[in-house]
Please model this.
Amino acid sequence: MADSRFYAIRLFIRKKWPLGYNLTLFLAVIALAWLLSYLAKGEGIADQTANALFLLVLAAGLWISEAIPPFAVSILVIGFAIYFLDDSHWSVISDDWEKYLGTWSSPVIWILLGGFFLAMGAQITQFDKKFSRLILTKFGTTPNRLLLGCMLTTGLLSMFMSNTATTSMMIAIVIPIIKKLDQDDPFLKSMLLGVAIAATIGGMGTVIGSPPNAIALGIIQNAGVEFDFFSWMMFGMPLALFLIFLSWLFLIRFYKTEIKSLTLNQEDEAGPYPNRNTFRNRLLVVITFIVTIGLWITSSWHNIPVAVVSFIPVLTLTVGGVVYGEDMRLLPWDTLILVAGGLTLGLVITDSNLDQYLVTKIPVFHNVVVLAAVLGFLTSLLSNIMSNTAAASILIPLGASLLPDYVLEISLVIGLSASTAMFLPISTPPNAIAFSYGYLRQADFRPIGITQALIGPAIILLAVILLI
Model:
């Protein structure tokens, strides 16, 4: 009877409440943000600091609740910083408005854009598929070695391509094998899970591998710390490969198979761009990859800014006829906007002295390692239930403000921990893609998801302590 009353009340509210679900969430987040900023003003803090606190709570609440799309929250952050940070009147614009708006064209955004063009060129010419098949043939035909080959290849490609696109491509390559297997064979699950996991972890390897990395690098560079594309790669790539290897060990022990040998499908498909899927275009993509990545890695030697190097794939692939004008709409512009919003939020926290206020109000552990561990595990937890880019946009600026003397270390811990979320099918796009084929249940993600959430941030923190 109690259950019937409960559902009746819920139905009544749903019918009578004049506002939609998302609008209700939106207004509730605004109310919470206003309340906290109002209470802070009662303590005598400056209006600018209180306004920044309102913006931080508003952005965090909207990113977590997803009342509006994540990229729209970033636009809201930039607009608020320009119009309402210094003064609540429309007629007063922040003196630093160009700086807050300029995050959209920051070097980090250009690095990501260059990476997106490289990935687009590889997909259009199907260089990614040919490269993957070439690598996989070197690992033999035994299931465990083939799984390792798939995971390493996926991880390597995800360092330079969208992990969503990489997952779709790799599953398309192995799906003929999966369809031949018995539906109850453990190897079927380990293959799908392995590709999804490797795609997420592989993003740790480079700045362009995952948007949280770009946000972390932006915060690091804004703090005046010297840390470039090569530095991130030398730290992130071995760490990503190590975590992929640990995940492989877990999968082959948790999903043991009796199969002795498997054959990889070697048939090529024309793809959606048959006119551009030519040897000449693939050669151009390979040369562009080598030149761009090479110049990114050696930027400290030739002193060409990494952002300027990103012009190379944009110009080369468009002039060379690999990427057409209409392909521009395929770029993930929402991700770029989301990253820009995260960078702006970091500037707002510092410029408004909100960081100093938070240090006095948030119970900060005296042990830096303990606080870094808490933020790392919190990042992994939030990334399981919301966009990891949005989680990084909230926690990296917050962590940098709590530990201003350890901006590099805390940004790395939080940024990389955002790539350890694998507990749910919705935790990451690779998980969702693997789940969509119908061979996995939600429960199949839990063992590896719990393992990664526990050991991932811990290993990242240990690596930061030992190497940095």
